[in-house]
Amino acid sequence: MQNQYISEWLNIPALQIREVRSLNTEELHIDAMPLEERQNCPLCLRDQHVIRKGSNGIRTIRHLPVFEKRVFLHVPALRMYCNCCEIGFSWTYAFVGPKQQYSHSFRSHTVELALGSTAAHSARMQQTPASTVQRMQDEILPVEKARIYEQIWEEAKASERLVIGVDDFAIKKGHTYNTGIHNLRGETMLEVLSGRKLDDLRAYATQHPDFRQLTPYAVVMDLAPVYHKWVSECFPNAIRIADRFHVHGYVIESVQAVRKTVQNTLSPRAKALLKSQHRLLNPPKETLTEESQQRLEVLLSYSPLLLSVWEWKEAFSVWYDCSPNHAVALFGFERWCTQGDQIAHAAVHATLKTMRNWKEAIVNYHRCRWTNATVEGRHNRIKAFQRRHYFTRNRDGYIAGILIECNRHRLFS
Length: 413
What we know:
The chain is an alpha/beta fold. It is built from 16 helices and ten strands. Strands 1, 2, 3, 4 and 5 form a five-stranded mixed β-sheet that branches. The protein has a five-stranded mixed β-sheet with strand order 8-7-6-9-10, sandwiched between helices. A hairpin with a 2-residue loop joins strand 3 and strand 4. The two termini are 30 Å apart. The mean pLDDT is 89.
């Protein structure tokens, strides 16, 4: 490859490649010079009176690998002098910071690898000391977090039909929880709140006026009364939507409760079969393979009660998918509840009581069809982050890590 194209290939067009040397099979050394003869003075910001006054030696800078080889750039540390301002300064390279041994591209790539795994793993991949990678990460994270945070909040404020998702995730399951606020339409995570109690949420809204400045069209959440009360206080004009995933979970639990009742009345062989294949009752029938559908039909033939509750569950999925508007959905919801009233089982009646209590929030899905599906996906990423970083004790670092992990498509953009 010609030297004049190597600088563009390395994404450093300001350098002129002088020589490419391969000392061994693992390293590639490139000697380069700046294309420009002069550089602007840091005081007068002009280059008319700037001259070169020699060099302080050669700077060796680690760059992104090429062909699985470590790349080292050797550039002169030029001394410059401005006759107008009578000051001396060193030549500044755009691809690397002052007194740094790693290029900006290398640092960004290394930190991005570390965020997806650990600093130790990234160090092994880049053949760099782990302490160096950790130092890069500690330097970049606060800067990137502040930049991403400002960007996503400005987008949320400017959004005309903002849809917010609110849900909690566990730090220690059953003991400690955080609450996440998400911009569903913008595909970003806006904030991480400490706790999930009403006092914690109200304190956050009081301390963060930017949150009150949002004008969401709709807010998606589960059936926790705390979230609905908080959202109604902060955004009284927003549509409150019960998340489809959580609502459908109540119906699935009813089906499984009926299944447990039925299987205790069956023969040992049928009981074992129904117990081992009980998950076939959960998904919609059309999503199953032909073989799975045949096994499902065998299970449903064991009991008319099980068949009726399964058909009731399937009707709920059809109601969610096929209701064309809010008015039709409201009528269909009442008809579905009437169908459930005819099933003689306490679990079904308990679920219907919950559904009727939350009818408005459930039917509101057909006014604004958004769910917290992406939020649940981010919760999986947060759990993986917590396992990798052993539940970071530094609260600021913990929050910054989660926000960057859930907004990685905005990282270094």
